[in-house]
From TrEMBL:
The protein's name in its UniProt record: Enolase-phosphatase E1
Protein function: Bifunctional enzyme that catalyzes the enolization of 2,3-diketo-5-methylthiopentyl-1-phosphate (DK-MTP-1-P) into the intermediate 2-hydroxy-3-keto-5-methylthiopentenyl-1-phosphate (HK-MTPenyl-1-P), which is then dephosphorylated to form the acireductone 1,2-dihydroxy-3-keto-5-methylthiopentene (DHK-MTPene).
Listed SUPFAM superfamilies: HAD-like
EC number: 3.1.3.77
Gene3D superfamilies: 1.10.720.60, HAD superfamily/HAD-like (3.40.50.1000)
Pathway of action: Amino-acid biosynthesis; L-methionine biosynthesis via salvage pathway; L-methionine from S-methyl-5-thio-alpha-D-ribose 1-phosphate: step 4/6; Amino-acid biosynthesis; L-methionine biosynthesis via salvage pathway; L-methionine from S-methyl-5-thio-alpha-D-ribose 1-phosphate: step 3/6
Swiss-Prot/TrEMBL keywords: Amino-acid biosynthesis, Hydrolase, Magnesium, Metal-binding, Methionine biosynthesis
InterPro entries named in the record: Enolase-ppase_E1, HAD-like_sf, HAD-SF_hydro_IA, HAD_sf
Cofactor: Mg(2+)
Amino acid sequence: MITHIITDIEGTTSSIAFVHTVLFPYARKRITHFLKAYREDVLVAEQINAVKLSCRNNEMTLDDVIAQLIEWIDNDVKEPSLKKLQGLIWQYGYEQGDFKGHLYRDAYQKLTEWNAQGQHLFVYSSGSVQAQKLLFKYSEFGDLTALFNGYFDTSVGHKREAGSYQNIHQSLACPAENVLFLSDIKEELDAAKMAGFNVLQLVRDDSVTVGAHPCVEDFSQIDISRICE
Ligand SMILES: CSCCC(=O)C(=O)COP(=O)(O)O
Ligand SMILES: [Mg+2]
């Protein structure tokens, strides 16, 4: 019986286009000014140091760090320091009303239904926990943060590694067989399956590489009473 549901964001609850044509360019356009203006801020300074650490180069200037971050943005590298900085920049955008968090209606409706049924709902995304909370707080359907019991980002590990799902499992008080993980990426589902979770692939369009797991076109097709190990 499924009691805990963990969902990915990009390509699962929300469109890939929103992340790649709204969020990423918004942060890319502002990251240089943001780092120059806030380099002394504790949170920002921590991420600047994390970039240097990741590049194993303590001699990097601020311009070097910015160039590295822009390269990571352009290549969609899921580097935790970049993800934290993007979240800080997006906060401004959401608060100013420059954009709202995109969510498919079917995802909104099913997450609301599962919450009302007492399911424990979680998010696992490469975006920072702060960025995840912002997307759901400022969603097109209003503030949805109350739907979720918790959020996981790459501080538990990368999404294509089974160990990350084992780490998540340790913080959930339930057997792995009671957990369902939803994602559009087959490698993430492979990893979650190895950790003992049930998995379902969201195949919303032709761009998705279909794996060997059960799949649905959208959340309206998910019937958790029919999912069992
Ligand atoms: C938290 S919204 C921004 C998502 C993001 O930055 C990203 O890299 C997408 O990662 P996901 O694991 O949701 O595919
Ligand atoms: Mg995804």
